[in-house]
Write a structure and sequence with these properties.
3-stranded antiparallel beta sheet, 7-stranded mixed beta sheet, alpha/beta, 15 strands
Length: about 375
């Protein structure tokens, strides 16, 4: 089976992990802070906070912004459920802003309409979480203008977008947001096995996220003596190990290489899929995508087969296609929570034909051609 995504592990990666295994510290040692500094520097951000998953980073970001019961947070319906779940874990309410066609990112126009209505009702969100779908940045400057006008905070869900740029700035620079969150799951741009990181330019937010990831404890406390530590608030064990951070450090050195290969593969898809009854992704001129995913939309009026038939046939041919994503509000938990009242028209239209094709640095041209030929044979 050709996977839709796969890690790329080198001998250097293995050596870096082994070096930590032979050292004095497997966790809470020197490698995690070094990795945090390296990622923050790569993005042009002031601070990095490494944690055990991208989901944990999203949760800590919400907590650091004091999101809790009675608050409202808005995000995209086309994302993994973790983006919405982090809000619910804080006891807040989550709602969904429709996407724009082509990029499948949060629609600024729909957001404007919703904000106008919410202001009249006194129901404005405390925060908005735009999702950089498939690796392409949302229109962050437009979102920041709205944040200034309507008074909400911004957490960028950049789980797909490490290495992407927006207006010649790295995603994660936090020029237009409070916090940006990355994921290092094996199918992402680079990996630490499991893991994630939040980056920010605000030292107070970084300090609080560091405290919350380690039980809410301030280890510099001296009240009980030189051995002292003080729990300031209720926190979690969301720490990243030095083993994971060593792998991340090594992977980060090859991130640009990974990105270049992904961009070549995406360009080949664009070229070779032209003319088929489907829509390929749209990339805006003022940004570069990290190409975590390559997702097409099948045209139901021109395809010979349904999306399900194409999906099953591609899987039977050994091609690990996928679908990203089922709109979050369709999930049983959210459907029951909101009584099925949420409906985003563009998200539904996109989902009806969505199909994710394999894309990762280890995908050879011959395998990609096999994927393209197999898909073409099913559609026309």
């Amino acid at each position: 089976m050709i996977p839709y995504g796969r890690q790329n592990i080198s001998d250097e990666d293995i050596d870096a992990v082994v070096e930590v295994l032979r050292s004095d510290f497997l966790t809470q040692g020197p490698v995690v802070p070094r990795f945090e500094q390296a990622v923050a520097a790569y993005c042009g951000a002031g601070h990095g906070v490494a944690v055990n998953s991208g989901t944990s980073a999203l949760h800590l970001a919400c907590l650091a912004l004091d999101i809790g019961p009675g608050d409202r947070v808005w995000t995209s319906p086309i994302t993994y459920v973790a983006t919405a779940n982090c809000v619910r874990c804080c006891g807040a309410d989550v709602d969904f802003v429709d996407i724009e066609p082509g990029t499948r990112n949060m629609s600024v126009d729909d957001l404007k309409l919703r904000l106008e209505r919410a202001r009249l009702k006194g129901e404005l969100p405390k925060a908005v979480i735009p999702v950089h779908f498939a690796g392409q940045s949302c229109d962050m400057e437009e979102l920041s203008v709205l944040a200034e006008e309507y008074g909400f905070r911004i957490i960028e869900d950049a789980a797909h977008a490490l290495g992407a740029t927006y207006r010649d700035m790295a995603v994660g620079s936090c020029r237009y947001s409070d916090i940006t969150v990355f994921s290092f799951h094996p199918v992402k741009l680079m990996t630490t096995g499991e893991g994630g990181m939040a980056v920010t330019n605000q030292s107070g937010l970084a300090e609080r996220m560091r405290r919350l990831r380690s039980h809410g404890i301030n280890s510099d406390g001296k009240r009980e003596g030189p051995w002292g530590y003080e729990q300031i608030e209720t926190g979690f064990n969301y720490r990243m190990t030095d083993i994971q951070a060593a792998l991340g450090e090594s992977q980060l050195r090859r991130l640009d290489e990974f990105l270049q290969r992904r961009r070549v593969l995406a360009g080949r898809y664009d070229e070779k899929l032209a003319g088929l009854p489907l829509t390929t992704p749209v990339t805006k001129a003022d940004r570069s995508s990290a190409w975590h995913l390559y997702t097409v939309e099948l045209d139901p009026d021109r395809c010979l087969r349904t999306r399900r038939e194409v999906f099953d046939a591609m899987r039977a041919a050994g091609i690990g296609v996928h679908v990203h994503y089922i709109p979050v509000y369709r999930q049983p938990y959210y459907h029951d929570l909101y009584g099925g009242r949420i409906h985003c028209e563009e998200a539904e239209r996109y989902y009806a034909g969505a199909l994710t094709l394999p894309l990762h640095p280890g995908l050879g041209d011959e395998y990609q051609d096999y994927i393209i030929d197999s898909l073409a044979g099913l559609l026309v």
